[in-house]
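Take one protein record:
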Amino acid sequence: MKIPAIKRLVESQTLDALVEAEAALLDEQQPAFAVEGEDEGEQLTHVFAAIFILNHIQDTGADFKDALREYTKKVRVSIS
């Protein structure tokens, strides 16, 4: 997971475009825009994170940094 790649997605893509990219990656297809990552798994992680962050920003009014912090908390809980 690379935070700069996630930030670029949050700043450059809409929520709808990210959801479409998620579906494309899950179907082993190329998304309509470039997603950074060494492989499809990392690309999907970046898209998942960007979707979570955009939703969190819309739901709570948080800024990117706080929304990213919430995402990383969830990741830490899921792997512990």
Observations:
- The chain has a mean pLDDT of 96.
- Residues 40-60 form the longest helix (21 residues).
